[in-house]
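Justification of resources, computational component.

The compute hours requested in this renewal are based largely on the per-chain cost of generating structure records like the one below. Each record pairs the submitted sequence with a full structure-token output. That output is archived, and it is also reused by downstream analysis tasks.
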Amino acid sequence: MVSPARSLLLLFYVACICIVFAVLSPKDITLSEDLALRVFTLEDFDLLKSKVAVDTEKENQLLAMQARQDSIEKALAQQEAALKQKNALDSVDNAKPDTAGSGRREKIEPVNTAVQKVEYPTNPLCMDLFFESLRKLSREDAFVRVLHFGDSQIEGDRISEYLRERLQDRFGGCGPGLLPPETRKGMRLSIQTNFSGNWRKYAYIDSKYKPKHSRLGPLQAYYTFVQPVEATTEPASQSSWVKYSDTDYGSELLRKTEVIKLIYAAPKEDLDLEVRTDGKILAQKSLDETTAFEILEIPVQDNYKSIKFDFKTEGEAEILGISIDCKSGVAVDNIPMRGSSGIEFSKIQKEHFGKQLKALDTKLIILQFGVNVVPSVTSSYKFYENLLFRQIKYLQAVCPDASILVVGLSDMARKNGLNYESYPNIEKIRDAQKNAAMRAGCAFWDLYTAMGGQNSMVSWVNAKPSLAGRDYTHFNARGARLVAQLLYDALIFEYEAYKKRVDNED
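The structure output for this chain reads:
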């Protein structure tokens, strides 16, 4: 048996060897051009004793943004409470609840200077198509759709939800927009999605099933629920269902609707559809087979707690998306593409995709990618700039009536020794995204700078209350709302400038 004294003496020798190694060894040992080994040194002992230096200016800026956000959300909560009370009284009086849809006019708000402004290429009018469509809402019952594409940073309706709430509050509109018939469980806080287990998602990214053709929908996928039937067997009718339920988490506008749109294709057999709201049959349809996509519109008269879709066919129907909207106002669609860098769009058949975006009244396309590029540290990101540039030009070609806004990637941090700090390539990737946008003639919004720049993610994670997760990559719900507010401020600031410019021209 080894005595305790000998064990302690061994530990003492090991500690001495570690200290000598820490004193004599270099801080970093280069293994290759892009890889280095971080060695524990005496500086790291000092970090254990002292607090990490805090950028006071950035901390104060973040506190000011949080305080303003709290005041805005307080005002919105009071407005929500008043609207709930009004709808409750209307319900008692057997009156139709306010749908905040058709006939709504623009709400006037104080103009706030954007923390980070939208940047333009040599053509400063590239957002005018979107701004004019917003202004049109103040004159007539028009419809404006915003497609918010992004990576896992927007998954679960983060950022999109609050941007939708702010735009609908000002310009009218209701509902959550486009929804998939199948998704990861519990992703959205405001909408619970339940579905049968026989759905299959076909997509170029974030799916184990790769598309059999390139006629994908606006959600960058198509969904089926029927396996191919062998030629030697009799056709068998197969069915599937999806149910969307309100969770009472989102705004009052989110749980209201005036029209449901089903985007589908039924290339081999008819598709039977039954739609129920709160258990009551809203519509029963037999949809003819078609290889091209079709959009079925179903008017809805009342607010809902749940909407269920039952499908049945003997063929291989493809569901491209289900939208829950108002007839007028703004819709904002959350379209996350986990693992994507935003370079898959051009794989979709151009004419097919363009017709869908036009039919859905798309007026703004937001591209928010980049976090999946960060782990691949390299000296130049010209390759990514060129890839993103080609995607923007593709989207401009398929949807010429829409403006495009590229949102730069957010800050991300990794552990260096005992501290977290920004990845060294964040600004290079941001610059590649900006260059791609400027070359393509579309607008750019710098989220990285809006957050506070270098090491800002560390501040967001350690804020009280926290604004981001401990992965030092993704915003939490509170942080996502703050990002959405910053983006909303930037858009509205430019919108007000557009109105002044147009008025002066008149």
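DSSP finds eleven helices and 20 strands in the chain. The chain has two domains: 114-173+328-506, 178-326.
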